Amino acid sequence: MPITMPSSTAAHHELTSHEVVLRLGADPHRGLTDQKAAERLARFGPNSLPVARTAGLAVRIVRQFHHPLIYVLIAAGAVTAALGEYVDSAVIFGVVAINALVGFIQESKAEAALEGLRSMVRTQAKVIRDGRRRTVLSDELVPGDLVLLEAGDKVPADLRIIRATELWVDESALTGESTPTVKDDGVLPGAISVADRRNMAYSGTLVTTGSGAGLVVGTGAETELGEIHRLVGAAETLDTPLTKKLAEFSKILTVGILGLAALTFGVGLLRGQDAVETFTAAIALAVGAIPEGLPAAVTITLAIGVARMARRRAVIRRLPAVETLGGTTVICTDKTGTLTENQMTVTGVWTPEARFEVTGLGYAPEGSVHDVHDNAAAIDSHPALRWSLLGGAACNDAALTEHEGRWDVVGDPTEGAMLVAAAKAGLGPGQVAQVLPRRATIPFSSERQYMATLHGDATSPVSSGQVVLVKGAVERVLSLCAYQLDGKGVAAPVDRAAVLAAAAELAGQGLRVLATAMRPVGGTNEFGPTDFDERLLSDRMVLTGLQAMVDPPRAAAAAAVAACHTAGIAVKMITGDHAATATAIAGRVGLLDPHEPVEGMVLTGADLAALSSEELPEAVERASVFARVSPEQKLRLVEALQARGHVVAMTGDGVNDAPALRQAGIGVAMGLGGTEVAKDAADMVLTDDDFATVEAAVEEGRGVFDNLTKFIAWTLPTNIGEGLVIFAAIVFGAALPILPTQILWINMTTAVALGLMLAFEPKEAGIMARPPRAPDQPLLTRALMVRILLVSSLLVAGSWWLFHWELAAGASLPEARTAALNLFVLVEAVYLFSCRSLTRSVWRIGFFSNRWLIVGVLAQLVGQLAITYVPAMNTIFDTAPISGDVWLRILMIALAAGLVVAVDKRLRRSRTLGNQHPGVETIGP
Ligand code: ATP
User: Ranges for the Cation-transporting P-type ATPase N-terminal domain (predicted)?
Assistant: First the structure.
């Protein structure tokens, strides 16, 4: 049927559901057909926002010049031109232009990379098409699609709500209103604001509780979000704490450099030197002292870090996370799905009457239910077993799918496992739905810890018989029960002690245990579908049984936990599951030492609630397992750890995990099993939900921080050296050993050819064998500053001596300067190798282990030969060819400088390492 587009201009919220259905050519029960969906996709295009560039090209280019250090360069270029030094001026402006170009390319690349990463975490939507529930990428939604909403979902398009159960949506992204709004399917009059349209759910907003269904009325740019996007563009900043600190630093540096340049100029004038010459010298100083490559190097290093992390399945959503990750001191992780596979299989059912075993692993409904004597259990002769399995399967929102013989779950794996268990006993989903048609639902939530449903009961002796089914955490379900179902199918008083003992025994084996309960509701029709709510689940429920399921620990979990421990990072399990299950799994992945008493190591939500705010931090720091924890308590846990000075990485997947994820230094969301709300709040998303990936990301984070430190340690001595050599020349009234244009040559070419290659430096061995960097540790430790000053002094002394030696030996000024220039570059090249590791000698890490660096050094050498021997370059840069014996002297000095640094490293290593065990190396004193 063609889409009957609106005959009237009424907005969707003004129409009844039925009118909307007609207008959209939709089906409120079976959804669109696949064919129709495909046609509409071709016609309306994908449901995604057009990529909006934050700023126009021109603005982005101009922005590259907006930097205090660049202002100094521009001023220097202008003054040089005014003085008639056109070649110098051209070189300075050339540098400014190159700098801007590199910055621009860099920024664009980093943005594109982040954009690409963002698309790795794509929103999914649950739809009904062709009468079947399915999960599709939200890009594929089309007008008329029937979308299902559940707590934790991000609304994938603009929807007209046609069904809603306690549906609350957080619309703060759109309206700024921070409290969620309730949604229903009513009709609303005329012109009302977006915030008041209770029967609409808008793309980009988040479902906080309840469930519902809606018809897509707008996709992509045609949504309210698209409208806003068009207006403001999505500005994503590339700033991180470090880049901000560096920006501060460069402002201070600029003032300092200008001060020193002014001082140089003053001293020169006082000494009666030529004003123009002194001014040139002051400019040289200013230009030399500016670390031009620094901003680009930081962005590039971070960007490479982001890419490396993505390769290891950790997608960074906010750039600062790359830095913070390296300093993580505690990782708080979920159990289910992160430390374990989240591949649930019910292996046993306990009923008040007997125990049963369930065979077969995975989601294929192949296997059987039998009693402890291996006799197949006929459900008809075991009423409690029958009701437990029925309860598990009917009070259930999951579905099983089969594709080429592979069975899978759509929905919650815990529920999937219960569907499979019932099917193995002959209660397939179709049959269950027939016997117990569902009338109303109280959905599962982590706070509630159970799910309840109301069903018509086809087996009931009374024609209007209904039954309430509940499944959930044992203690919670038990608290609703007064009875248990005995072997004859009669409700007897519940034996709480026996139920709890059975549950504890199963949980002690690491099994996840859920209780099931039922309650027939007589013919009086006690509840109507609309007034079925929590208060009505009185304490008169009848316990039918316990279902125990295995969820094996992930293969890599134990090794990753061990790696974290070696790296001095504490790992804590935070789970909603039973303490005994949590303790058993914690033991298996190495979170608890089997030889140590568990006293104080395992805390439950109730224990936490009983602790005062003063007691909490210490208790939390000590414990490793937190069981039956509610999502709100996660926030308290993060804050307690932060109060102890920890940098906390916290994993989460649910809607209510969002506050804790935001509070944590690194919020980590699950890419596969996580809700959109959690992903939105997170700094990092794991595309495989695996704990080992968090550990890998921390490792990469440490590598990034190392590489940044290395670059800074490498680049600063050159700038300081250049500044000081000029300053010394003026103070002593000597000729300048290097000219401004030559300094620019050094700074620009070496930053690109040499320094940047450090960003490709592989992680050092033993990077996860040292303790985490202290949260307040400055970028440059005292030891590093000493090294920087040492290398700066070597540069000043070496170039000063060489320049004057050459002059004394009869060389011309250009020749002596060429020698000094080459010396600077060569010392930098030698020092570059040293900077590849801040503690180890280059021989230990392998001379050729970073090929890029070798390529860079060779490129730099070609450049040096060019500036020394190519006549045109000689003219531009005031250089002159030098002979072999000069090269020899340069080489000797450079190697000597390298030797001094090596000795310094060696000395420091033996001092800092002291009695620590071999292989553990620290940066700094
Ligand atoms: P983790 O926090 O490690 O992911 P979890 O999945 O056990 O652990 P929650 O999802 O908060 O944490 O579940 C808490 C408890 O609620 C579970 O231990 C289980 O007893 C019960 N439960 C879990 N899923 C369901 C469900 N779909 N229906 C009913 N009860 C459930």
Answer: 11-85
